[in-house]
Amino acid sequence: MSTEPIKYKIVEFPSQGATIRGRLYLPEDKTTPYPTVIMAHGFTATINGMIADKYAEEFCKAGFAVLLYDHRNFGISDGLPRQEINKWLQARGYVDAIDYVFTLPAVDKRNIALWGDSMSGAEVLLVGAAENRVKAIVVQVPACGESAPPADTDGALGKSMLDHFKNGDIKGTPEITIGPMPVVSSDQKGTPSLLLPVTAFRWFIEYGGRYNTLWKNSATFVNPNAVTAFHPGLIARHIKPAVLMMIAEEDEMPGANSDVSRFVYSQITSEKKLIEMDGGHFGLLYYPGALFEKTSKAQRDFLVQHLQN
Question: What is the mean pLDDT of residues 284-297?
Answer without folding.
Answer: 97
